[in-house]
Design goal:
Strands 1-2 form a two-stranded antiparallel sheet. The chain contains 6 helices and 2 strands; from the N terminus they run ααααααββ. Strand 1 and strand 2 form a beta hairpin. Helix 1 packs across helix 6 and helix 5 runs antiparallel to helix 6. By secondary structure, it is mainly α. The chain has one domain: Orthogonal Bundle (434 Repressor (Amino-terminal Domain)), CATH 1.10.260.40. 55% of the residues lie in helices and 4% in strands.
């Protein structure tokens, strides 16, 4: 993605968390329905949405493709997940188990 497109995605996603945006984009689609299309288990979707597991870039990309979002979830992943890490863990500093990524 070039710098212009990336900047546009960052502006478009604002401060919405990954989980909030995934739920919004999923709309009336169930986790089970989305899981069938993304080839991730319904349990994995649940774990990401409840903050048990952080999303991965591959997961974000699969959801973007399934939901035809134009890369919104990958942009949020890059914004939130590739930043500083908590000491002694692989979790980002802004990771909250209650909401996924806290802003």
């Amino acid at each position: 993605m070039n710098g212009i497109a990336k900047a546009g995605h960052e502006a478009a996603v604002g401060e919405t968390s990954f989980v909030e945006e995934l739920r919004r984009l999923r709309g009336g689609m169930s986790q089970r329905e989305l899981a069938k299309v993304t080839h991730y288990s319904p349990g994995h979707h649940s774990n990401v949405e409840t903050g048990v597991k952080p999303p991965t870039e591959d997961f974000a990309r699969a959801c973007d493709t399934a939901l035809n979002t134009g890369g919104r979830l990958v942009a949020i992943f890059h914004r939130d997940m590739l930043g500083p890490r908590r000491k002694g863990t692989s979790r980002p500093v802004n990771w909250s188990p209650e909401v996924g990524l806290a802003n």
